[in-house]
Amino acid sequence: MTASADYGEKIPNNVDLHEDRRLQRALESWQPNFLSWWESMGPTLPTQDVYLRTAVDVGREGWAHFGHVAMRDYRWGIFLSERDPDRRIGFGAHKGEPAWQKVPGEYRADLRRLIVIQGDTEPASVEQQRNLGATAPSLYDLRNLFQVNVEEGRHLWAMVYLLHAHFGREGREEAEELLHRNSGSEESPRILGAFNEETPDWLSFFMFTYFTDRDGKYQLGTLKESGFDPLSRTCEFMLKEEAHHMMVGTTGIDRVVERTVQLMLEHDTDDIAPYGGIPLGVVQKYLNFHYSVSLDLFGGETSSNVANYYTAGLKGRWMEGRRKDDHRLTDDAVMVDALVDGTIGQTEVAALVGLNTDLRREYVADCQSGVNRWNRILADAGLPQRLKLPSVAFNRQVGAFAGIEATPDGEPLTAEEWAAQKGAWLPDDVDKAHVRSLMRPVHERGRIASWIAPPRNGINGRPFDYDYVHLA
């Protein structure tokens, strides 16, 4: 079982860190480097304190405590969900064997790589979002930004703990590197492309937390199935916090669409830019961009590496336990997206090799639920326009469609046609300039920017006009 969280320690934890003095000293020596990274690459807006949720327990009785906290003093900690002593590996060649408490030697390099890639995304998003506080549309939104930021910082701690606790000197070196790579850096960029993109405005932030953090949900969900039990338990707890990030994106876009609809009806026009709103066509372009970039995070449609991870018991499928098959897949086949004779279609491959496609399809179906939600706002207002997810072949840089161009409807284009028309589907300089022009800070209690509707509910039962953030 998991010990209760110890908040008397320098590093709050529920892994009995005090019983391993060597590990404790190693992590305490990493802690100042983390704080230095936070000061130099974290949020730039000076604050006194923020109304934040802090993890204090992982059990059913509650795992979050709310209160005003100076962000530098936030109690980043190490939390694993409770251990099931009878847990067994649920898939692959080791199916039915007891879950591993230590790293199997033959899988050491692969496990380390999976943890490093996941760990690298956590500080990256903090770096991408570091300047957004200066243009927050309300104190409520500012608080949500900072909550996302501190939890991404805690997710970094989660991965660093695994590296330090289970991978020796190599793990400690990898943990240092997680602080030395920076989003968008030419010399030392983050590992995955989406985490080197700019997040220059709040529409981008909401799209990022909806689409890109949703990729994080699915990646964590596959790692939660891992036969390496400490990784599984770490990811299970991280998923609780990840849900908040996606809520910020979902409701943020809700509120953008809601305000856009209000302005369209008030002025009887689709072109609401002159009235201080974000036109629906611009929302669609931002959706197209963030969705397509996030699809790339799942990798190629086929992958022998992922097949090997599955067979080894390192990384399962989304909701593995609910699947109605043998959980080995050695004799199964699946259809994956592919270029077939130059056209966008599908081809049959071994199920193990097509696991990236399996995960991407779960993600796509989940993304569609948000689009349905936003379209209900349009329908309820009596408007005929609808938002939609573009084709999986649109604007892809990774996988089967990386070498072609296609419309949002999935029609192939020549390079010349794409160059001439892409401004109709992706944000161009005019769109970005307009959205940036709306990004004027509203840091007074109870007030909100004119391009977004207020939230329906505040945080933790507090009203919208609560003092969520005290600025410095």
Automatic annotation (TrEMBL):
Q: What is this protein called?
A: Benzoyl-CoA 2,3-epoxidase subunit BoxB
Task: Kindly give the InterPro entries that the UniProt entry links to this protein.
Answer: Aromatic_CoA_ox/epox (IPR052703), Benzoyl_CoA_Oase_BoxB (IPR017635), Ferritin-like_SF (IPR009078), RNR-like (IPR012348)
Which SUPFAM superfamilies does the entry mention?
Ferritin-like (SSF47240)
Record's PANTHER family? Answer: 1,2-PHENYLACETYL-COA EPOXIDASE, SUBUNIT C, PHENYLACETIC ACID DEGRADATION PROTEIN PAA
What gene name is listed for this protein? Answer: boxB
